[in-house]
Amino acid sequence: MDENNGSMRVLYGAILRLLRPLVKLSLKKGISYGTFASLLKWVFYDVAKKELTLEGRKQTQSRISVITGFSRKEVKRLSELDPPSMRRQKEQYNRATRVISGWRRDNDYLDAQGQPIAIPITGNGATFEMLVKRFSGDMPPRAVLDELIRLGALEKESDNRVRLVQEAFMPTADEAIKFHILGTDTELLISTIDHNINPDKTTPFFQRKVYYDNLPDEILADFRRRSGISAQKLLDDLDRYLAINDRDVNPELEGTGRNIAGIGIYYFQKPFCEED
Fold this sequence. Notes:
mainly alpha; 3-stranded antiparallel sheet
């Protein structure tokens, strides 16, 4: 076996590991192999069309056929399909995260210890209505309020005030947004790993984890608590920096281009298995 074949075998193994939780989720949700395979086929087509083009040349169906192994007839069929859209969930998620992040960092909405305070829905000063106008553009405040209460991010109090019940937006009542997060967060992680694998990239993206495989049950709760506190503090600090440099929050900012950047942190825990 030459080095290339050895690398490909490792890649095949990595792909199988990536697919396993996705297939498990699909089966739990009643998605058949045929449906899963049709989605995968469309992704092969779409990636070949948009991301594997030749510089200065328009991608052709013939080249897509060569790259993917599909017949030109199948490429034509795939080009005529309407892909599933997550636009509504993306807008809901972005709107919710902007409002919650603004609430957690704007001094008008914090107490002396830097913790979010309960605020009136309407009125003068630091109200929920003003919060939405400041961080969510021209969205109707009542619609945003109802949405965040439905998603489990806010609670309404008896004196017509609302309080934040989550440190970050983690939808508890909307499965569609949870699936949106599954797609976007996993895509970003794999894109970072792909960037770091590429030998042409001279500056790798930050990619680290802390991992031990012989831990007793008794320390897990404390580690989960410690890691949550430390991770939230880091994310809050970076959120403040990015917010003051984001044109959606500060429309008067100048500069060139439009980019996505951020950092993600996730906790993992499972019983040890020799196959891992």
